[in-house]
């Protein structure tokens, strides 16, 4: 009797119900991808193997809490986050991240509360310039910490629309803040 091949979304649905067989299939399909993603960043076999276990352990332990729409993307993002935690724990960051530490040290040494209020003001101004729906999605996601599904139901729009609005708002905010950071760093240098 031929076995049916389940899609990633079907496996995710079964995982959410606690199906160990679905978890094993997800592991079989994605362990190598997760390993390669971690190894190319860490260049350490043992750390990468440990990281694979951490990613999949977290997936299993939090299976009831996660609303995963794209399993591959979720696992890669989880892997990158775990790599970040390894960097942070070992204080071993790749060369391209180290200059950012110096920027962070400068801002901590300054009037942090004043700068935090300035940052909040900048974000508030940025939000006021966003279209109403995008602003509402951003507010619900970041300020009220709502899930994509909750936002979708609350605003009566599809989850895909929520994701698109959220992604667009993040790109816009990052762009705005990076320009602001560049301007501030120029003022500090001058």
UniProtKB/TrEMBL annotation:
Residues 131-165 form the RNA polymerase sigma factor 70 region 4 type domain. GO terms for molecular function: DNA binding; sigma factor activity. It comes from the Bacteria. GO terms for biological process: DNA-templated transcription initiation. The keyword Transcription applies. InterPro entries: RNA_pol_sigma-70-like (IPR039425), RNA_pol_sigma-70_dom (IPR014284), RNA_pol_sigma70_r2 (IPR007627), RNA_pol_sigma70_r4_t2 (IPR013249), RNA_pol_sigma_r2 (IPR013325), RNA_pol_sigma_r3/r4-like (IPR013324), WH-like_DNA-bd_sf (IPR036388). Keywords: Sigma factor, Transcription, Transcription regulation. Belongs to the sigma-70 factor family. ECF subfamily. This is Sigma-70 family RNA polymerase sigma factor.
């Amino acid at each position: 009797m031929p076995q049916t091949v389940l899609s990633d979304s079907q496996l995710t649905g079964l995982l959410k119900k606690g199906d160990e067989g679905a978890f094993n299939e997800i592991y079989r399909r994605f362990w190598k991808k997760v390993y390669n993603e971690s190894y190319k960043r860490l260049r350490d076999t043992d750390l990468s193997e440990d990281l694979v276990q951490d990613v999949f352990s977290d997936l299993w332990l939090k299976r009831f809490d996660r609303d995963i729409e794209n399993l591959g993307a979720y696992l890669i993002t989880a892997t990158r986050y775990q790599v970040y935690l390894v960097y942070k724990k070992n204080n071993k960051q790749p060369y391209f991240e180290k200059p950012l530490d110096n920027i962070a040290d400068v801002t901590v040494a300054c009037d942090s509360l004043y700068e935090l209020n300035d940052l909040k003001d900048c974000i508030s101004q940025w939000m006021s310039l966003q279209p109403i729906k995008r602003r509402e999605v951003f507010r619900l996601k970041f300020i009220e910490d709502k899930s994509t599904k909750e936002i979708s139901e609350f605003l009566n729009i599809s989850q895909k629309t929520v994701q698109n609005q959220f992604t667009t708002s993040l790109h816009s905010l990052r762009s705005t803040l990076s320009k602001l950071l560049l301007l501030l760093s120029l003022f500090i240098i001058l």
